[in-house]
Specification:
mainly alpha; Synaptonemal_3; Synaptonemal complex central element protein 3; about 0% strand; 2 helices; single chain; about 95% helix
Length: about 90
Amino acid sequence: MAESESQEGNYYNREKMVENVETDMEELLEEMEKLTVDAAWMAYNYTAIQTNSDLFKAMQHSEDVFLMCKEQMEKKWQEVLLESRGEGEKKE
């Protein structure tokens, strides 16, 4: 009797293990698909940039403007934080 219960437990464990392997494989395949798409887009962008210097210049300009904007936003955010702390201290 104990032997048949042990066999049922082993069967259940094997079944669970197979389900886990299948789930893991599906997740890995999805991740590989995402990486493949990312790699394809990178290759496409690289080719586009190499064949069109104006595109590279435009992308560089966009990045520069973005970084300047980000810097200004961070400065303003710090000013707002300092002002709000100052007002909070005055109200108390």
